[in-house]
TrEMBL record:
Pfam family name, one: NamZ_N
Domain named Peptidoglycan beta-N-acetylmuramidase NamZ C-terminal: residues: 234-390
GO MF terms, alphabetically ordered: peptidoglycan beta-N-acetylmuramidase activity
Organism: Bowdeniella nasicola
Coiled coil region boundaries: none
The name this protein goes by in its record: Uncharacterized conserved protein YbbC, DUF1343 family
Superkingdom of this protein's organism: Bacteria
Chain ranges of the Peptidoglycan beta-N-acetylmuramidase NamZ N-terminal domain: 23-227
């Protein structure tokens, strides 16, 4: 069964979006079911598209994490490209206002983890559109991890950032359209005048589906998420980004290779002894070509996911960090934020987790306290249940 994407529904019926000047928030993940770029398909269909707005990694995906591509003119469509990464508030308002749009549309592929930034580019643009009086549309896409399982804490007050603008779980179980709906309501509850977005829903998608059930081609949504399996790994091992451990960037197995110069091959046996479901670890050595420990041989583990249904990414990530802290001759340290200069925090992990709770629990030798927070997601799902667009059957 092939899911029908929001973009394909719009191409079949362009009247779903009125207006004569459209802006499209998109990148290389914005494709039709036959892998045509959404921007190119819309221009070819005669849609009134006048500008493209690009997120982290850029319109073409050549930029690494925390980077983007400069704006300019898109060679595929001849359209103006606006680099929106890190733009927010009045600066984003000015940039969008200059485009003179009467509809702003988002077509980006998320991966199901709160600390993936595409959703927050979308939300910043939704907020800007609300301030400018521009109708906002989302061309919906599947959550690659499925929409039933949720896990992890939300975002505590004061810990909102560009890896978590609103209070949703780490494994949120939402589509981009649903995130936009949740964000709009939470903003209104804070007194902001943000209307509900218009979501052009998928057809054929059910919450129990993971990516392999959709019948769609996988387009790696960023350089370090090469496969649907790496999206699962990112949810849990994204926690490693808050430490000085290598999360495998600069290797062929990002978020599956985890290591440090001071770890030993015994680390794999330590993790396997913890009996974590759906996953097995083997010792490995690697030398990242960029990012942490670039050019330095490191020892660590290759995490093999054997059963995505049994695998609990966040519980596994917590156990991995706890084991690294307890390793012989451990030099485990938390990483301080380097790229979030406008929103400094003492530790990057606090932004990733949404509060200091994970760091404090692990530093106290109480990993169980962090694991207990994984259940916080259930209350957040109950809060947002009425905003969900898709059923489980």
């Amino acid at each position: 069964m092939t899911v029908c994407l929001g973009i394909d529904r719009l191409l079949a019926d362009p009247s779903l979006i009125p207006g004569s000047r459209w802006g499209l928030i998109t990148n290389f993940t914005g494709v039709t079911a036959d892998l045509t770029l959404s921007s190119k398909a819309l221009v070819g269909a005669g849609a009134p598209l006048v500008a493209l707005l690009a997120p982290e990694h850029g319109l073409r995906g050549t930029a690494q994490a925390g980077e983007s591509e400069p704006g300019g003119i898109d060679s595929e469509t001849g359209l103006q490209v606006l680099d929106t990464y890190r733009l927010a508030g009045a600066e984003l308002d000015r940039a969008i206002s200059e485009l003179n749009l009467d509809a702003l549309i988002c077509d980006l592929q998320d991966i199901g983890a709160r600390y993936y930034t595409y959703a927050w580019t979308m939300l910043d643009c939704l907020r800007s559109a609300a301030r400018l009086g521009i109708p906002f549309y989302v061309l919906d896409r599947p959550n690659p991890l499925g929409g039933e399982i949720v896990s992890g804490p939300g975002v505590a007050t004061g810990f909102e950032s560009f890896i978590g603008r609103i209070d949703i779980p780490i494994r949120h179980g939402l589509t981009m359209g649903e995130i936009a709906r949740v964000g709009a309501r939470l903003d209104r509850e804070r007194g902001e005048d943000v209307p509900d977005p218009h979501v052009i829903e998928m057809t054929g998608w059910q919450r129990a589906m993971t990516w392999q059930d959709t019948g769609l081609f996988w387009v790696p949504p960023s350089p370090n998420i090469p496969s649907p399996l790496s999206a699962f790994a990112f949810v849990g091992n994204g926690l490693v980004e808050g430490t000085e451990l290598s999360e495998g960037r600069g290797t062929t197995r990002p978020f599956e290779f985890i290591g440090a110069p001071w770890l030993t091959p015994d680390f794999a046996a330590v993790l396997n002894a913890r009996g974590l479901p759906g996953v097995i670890f083997r010792p490995t050595f690697f030398q990242p070509t960029f990012s942490k420990h670039a050019g330095t041989p490191v020892c660590g583990v290759h995490m093999h996911i054997t059963d995505t249904g049994a695998y609990d990414p966040l519980a596994t990530g917590i156990e991995l960090l706890a084991a690294a802290q307890a390793a012989p001759a451990s030099q485990f340290t938390w990483r301080t934020p380097a790229w979030e200069q406008d929103e400094p925090r003492p530790h990057f992990i606090d932004l990733i987790w949404g509060s200091p709770a994970l760091r404090e629990a692990l530093d106290s030798g109480e990993a169980h306290a962090a694991r207990a927070q994984l259940a916080d997601a259930q209350a957040l799902r109950a809060r947002d249940e009425d905003l969900l667009l898709y059923s489980s059957q």
